[in-house]
Amino acid sequence: MEPMNIDKIDNMDEALLKIQELEKRLKDIEYRIPKKYPEVKFLTYKDRKRILVTGGAGFVGSHLVDRLMMEGHEVIVVDNFFTGRKRNVEHWIGHENFELIHHDIVNPLYIEVDQIYHLASPASPPHYMYNPVKTIKTNTVGTINMLGLAKRVGARVLIASTSEVYGDPEVHPQTESYWGHVNPIGPRACYDEAKRVSETLAYSYDKQENVEVRVARIFNTYGPRMHMNDGRVVSNFILQALTGQDITIYGSGQQTRSFQYVTDLVDGLVKLQNSNYSLPVNLGNPEEHTIEEFAVIIHKMVGGKSHIVHKEAMEDDPQRRKPDITRAKNILGWQPVVSLQEGIKKTVNYFRKELMRSKHSERNLHSPVDASNINKVHKAGDYNDF
Ligand code: NAD
Ligand code: UDP
Ligand code: UDP
């Protein structure tokens, strides 16, 4: 690059041009500075595990990846980027303990691992209804492939199941012993029934092939890195409130949900994977709200001029949902610790930042800094500057 001659600047326009040139040079230099990673714990060969996270570039998966990386494990993410994004894990790309494989788990996968977290599947109703046959394949053929892989290499596998296995429940709150109430031919069936088969497959491989399995029944989860347009209630309401659009309640708004913050879920998933318990375990926050109450909470927290409006009800929408978490408390010593206020605040901040983003090059600054359970092990502020 030509050196710049400051003496030649004789008017404002020229000065502005020079400033732009300097800014460009600074950017070029910044690109050449080696990438910094959060400082991960060092584990010796004896304690370090090779862990596969399917769907690791998605919302929940990317937070789980942060947790496992920070603990010092080798993490392999397998994702087809249907609903996930490289951006969710971009802060690990290039790290010696991290690998990202673009692969659809409906196809076989031959790698060597010690543990598997099997999360790959669209999760929001609009996403899983978009291509119902593919949703079924991912949760059946994909699960068989992961169980086949676990069988071949002797790995333990945790299946991300869902509260949807209870369907529109007649038992409240839902305990793990409840068999559920699912319409097998309704619009949600491609997800609900496929997840039920996924559980059945896990226990069949357990019985027949001695594969070690763990089954987490995950209830509604929210937090930073949720897909902004996934059509779920949390992302819809926050986005609508931030952009001044109507906040859309489907149906009466008297249906209920219980929302858990993503770091609580990650904590539960890791505890379950490393426990000796193989039957299904509910992971969710038992604080229950009607959707109408929830709309008011978000509206108040975000502010703005949105109106709360009612739209047509969704077909087969479960009317009440709240986990009974006695099993998780007794067996894993786990319960959620992040309050709705605190979790929503972090999520709103993330959505705000994402809405202001204007360039690809802007880093995804929601980093492991935010993971409250990690901050207990590592000093808070350790990763503020990456
Ligand atoms: P998400 O859509 O953000 O993540 C899913 C990830 O799986 C994405 O990265 C996607 O690209 C990937 N994927 C989908 N199909 C794939 C395929 N065939 N091959 C490879 N990758 C594929 O969803 P999420 O909210 O992070 O959910 C993760 C898991 O947790 C899912 O199994 C979901 O069913 C379960 N779950 C989530 C919730 C919740 O509220 N978020 C509730 C219950 C269960
Ligand atoms: N599989 C895989 N990776 C492996 C081992 C198996 O993807 O490392 C797939 C394989 O394609 C197979 C499925 O898992 O179709 C089930 O494997 P299993 O050994 O149970 O069945 P089989 O190969 O006997 O049909
Ligand atoms: N919902 C709503 N408005 C929206 C999105 C969702 O009222 O803009 C309702 C939906 O009908 C359901 C609840 O919020 O009763 C939770 O929906 P979500 O899609 O988040 O997940 P679900 O728990 O149904 O899988």
Textual characterization of the structure:
It is a single chain. The protein is of the alpha/beta class and 386 residues long. It has one domain (50-376): Rossmann fold, CATH 3.40.50. It is 38% helix and 14% strand. It contains eleven helices and 13 strands. α2 packs across α7 (262-273), α4 packs parallel to α5 (189-209) and α6 (233-242) packs parallel to α8 (291-302). The longest helix has 22 residues, at 132-153. It is globular, with a radius of gyration of 23 Å. The structure holds nicotinamide-adenine-dinucleotide and uridine-5'-diphosphate (2 copies).
Task: Provide a compact summary of the structure.
By secondary structure, the protein is an alpha/beta fold. The protein has eleven helices and 13 strands. The C terminus is likely disordered.
Q: Looking at CATH, which topology would you report? A: Rossmann fold
Number of DSSP strand runs: 13
**What about the largest sheet?**
7 strands, parallel
**What do we call the CATH homologous superfamily?**
NAD(P)-binding Rossmann-like Domain
Low-confidence stretches: 369-386
Query: What is the CATH architecture term?
Result: 3-Layer(aba) Sandwich
Mean pLDDT: 91
| Ends apart, CA distance between termini | 28 Å
